[in-house]
Amino acid sequence: MPDKVPVTVLTGYLGAGKTTLLNRILSEPHGRKYAVIVNEFGEIGIDNDLVVGADEEIFEMNNGCVCCTVRGDLVRIIDGLMRRKGKFDAIIVETTGLADPAPVAQTFFMDDNVGRKAKLDAVVTVADA
Hints:
129 residues; alpha/beta; Rossmann fold; 5 helices; globular
């Protein structure tokens, strides 16, 4: 079986620094290419405009929290990304500050199609102390 694509879920409260950390990851010269999924709760995405311009592919999910109402969108986006496997080394999912990361993490164990192609590599929680 081919290697599964590693997925990192980036989570934390509103204003904790998730997008700042994501920008740092994307702008470092590490030689890795990321597909980025940004989850926004409102109709207008703010964080997507704040993500640095890079070669990475960025997908935005609006109108709901990735942990519940748009979970199906997450599965569809990951499935679509798997058709373009090889164009990126890993996936980063930046959740809205309102998200519970547990259901997002469960997606990689509960959805057989996603679980065959991608693996949950880490859940990183950003806290502004």
